[in-house]
Amino acid sequence: MPIHVSHCCFGYRRRALVLADLTLALPSGCVVLLGPNGAGKSTLLGLLASALKPSAGRVTLGGLDTSKRRDLKRYRQQVGWLPQQVTPVPGLRVREQAAYAGWLKGLSRREAWDRSLGAIKQVGLDELAERSAEQLSGGQLRRLGIAQTLVHSARVVLMDEPTAGLDPTQRKVFRGLLEDLKDQASFVVSTHQTEDLEDSYDSVVLLDRGEILFEGSTISFLGLAPQQVASGRRAEAAYTGLVKGEA
Ligand SMILES: Nc1ncnc2c1ncn2[C@@H]1O[C@H](COP(=O)(O)OP(=O)(O)OP(=O)(O)O)[C@@H](O)[C@H]1O
């Protein structure tokens, strides 16, 4: 599956480049995207989602290239995006919003409606199917965002800080959900939380000021922590060492 980013450049309007000549292969499985504030994580996710267009370089999934108009629709059907804020669509109920997302990705109304029930069941929202999406809590809204990507069977799901602001119980629900869905899709998740790294992710990408500081398996990332660091603190130590240039 992997998404390939080849020599991509991106800057907002006329400002300096946020990503300059970035090359990266995102493997299948669960990938965590780490980096300090302003590192370029959301920007990279925007490129991967094809919501942002690189000024140079290419983003590809299989044979599909986001710079080619004829590939774009199929690329977007295969890639789901959960932005930092999942917005409830005014007037829509939970199941309707999931179905609407499927329709926007090119499913027929009938197909989107039929698939929506299974998708909200998978994220544990079926009991709230008839509730207005505007009445959901932050954690429930993010689960609805995941359901939206399941309706159109995305092969890759991109998530921008999906657990930010969630309480520990909701974070655990999210981790469980990721575990349950692992066989169904690949995930690229940007986060500042390093505690769950070992249990939840197969590989790590660490970005700082638009540059890749680390790209590889979670095991090799944890191996960068100094030997004496206790197992629960290894991810944080590896992260800090790389960002400070010590690892
Ligand atoms: N819409 C925008 N217009 C102009 N500059 C932007 C915009 N969005 C982001 N930037 C700038 O691009 C750089 C990278 O931002 P980005 O949001 O991608 O980083 P991030 O790693 O996701 O940060 P955080 O962890 O704080 O969410 C920052 O310098 C930011 O100020």
TrEMBL record:
Residues 3-234 form the ABC transporter domain. PROSITE patterns: ABC_TRANSPORTER_1, ABC_TRANSPORTER_2. Keywords: ATP-binding, Nucleotide-binding, Transport. InterPro entries: AAA+_ATPase (IPR003593), ABC_transporter-like_ATP-bd (IPR003439), ABC_transporter-like_CS (IPR017871), ABC_Transporter_VariousFunc (IPR051782), P-loop_NTPase (IPR027417). GO terms for molecular function: ATP binding. It holds the Pfam family ABC_tran. This is ATP-binding cassette domain-containing protein. It comes from Streptomyces zingiberis.
